[in-house]
Amino acid sequence: MTRLIPVFLVIFNFISLSELTAGTVVVLNTVNAGLTGTAIREVRDGKLAGHAYKKYFSGSPENEVGIIYNISTQTRQTNNYIKSDGNTAWSTQINSISATDNNRYGGMVYFGTEPVLYRTYGFIRTTSGSYFTVEPAGATRSEVHGLNGDKTVGWFDIGGVRKGFLHQGNSYSTGFTTLEFPGASLTEAKGVDSNYVVGSTIIGGENYGFRYDIATGGYVASRATGNLDTYFNDINDGMIVGTATLGGQNIPFLMQNGQYEFFSFQGNSGLSASGSSYDNGVLAGSYVTSTGETLGYYAIVPEPSTSTLIVLSVCLQVFLRRFQMLRTK
Questions:
Q1: Which domains are seen in the chain, by residue range?
Q2: Residue 120, helix vs strand vs coil
Q3: Pick from 267, 257, 273, 269: nearest CA to 308
Q4: Number of other residues whose CB lies within 10 A of the CB of residue 82
């Protein structure tokens, strides 16, 4: 079965988080700040990166502000893309943050005002405070989702097709490698470490996670135990984190050496959550409440051992068989 983290869900605002105990899930809630939701995209070295947003009564547009949250000091800073004319962009999302310097990060930014259609660009903010859009030539939309050293990954739309990209170097007008899983109708790159890129792809109408070897240019696709729709969101020191879909729920997982460990929230079996990132025993992501509100979370979880993963993989297969039998009755 999926592994249940023994938790109770506690709602806090950003300035009133209490001390964690092992296994506790902390939910980051910005309602008290006048905002309506929080999405967490990455955790690195005790810092969470993401965005908070406010949805207007019309339902659109969403005014988003990038956020970086320090777990140990329980402090939050907001970060918005600053345009060359000195004005801030309409909306900023931070998807990836440097582990050594939280002044360096990447994400996506919206330009435009209602009713003009938004134009979405991937971007990088350098340590010195300069902002650069990151986009392969000819793209109509782009997003940055992972950075590691001088490597940046994300995806872009071109000619009606979504493709991933790997950028290397310090010039954001050159140095792009297009990532397109062979035979796929869609490829999105989401995370990068020193040797590999991970992301999601659609092959024959089914969702797979994939890993790309930077040195050899080879691709490997994977689906979670039970042939579930699978999405890889990040990679860190060989540990892949992502989400699998089962019974209409999105279930976070950690994957190492081809073995999956799944996570759920005790007492909240209907929770649909993303597992966006993992670092040093912290799993972080977002989930959607029954009222449609998006909240970020982080959970203290142990790194899975290979033996534990194998046992959990077998248990999940048994669970899936029972689930399928019940559906056919």
A1: 3-328 (2.120.10.30)
A2: strand
A3: 257
A4: 16
Q: pTM for the complete prediction?
A: 0.81
Q: Is the pLDDT of residue 165 over 60?
A: yes
> What is the percentage of the chain residues whose pLDDT exceeds 70?
73
pLDDT reported for residue 38: 85
Give dist(CA 228, CA 277) in Å, integer. Answer: 20
The pLDDT tens digits for 276-310 are: 899 988 888 888 777 777 888 888 876 665 434 33
CA angle (24 as vertex; 251, 12 as ends), nearest 5: 100
Residue with tokens 């070897």: 213
* CA atoms within a 13 Å half-sphere pointing along the CA-CB vector of 244: 20
**Residues contacting 24, CB < 8 A, separation 6+:** 7, 8, 10, 299, 300
The pair of three-digit structure tokens given for residue 83, joined into one six-digit string: 């345009």
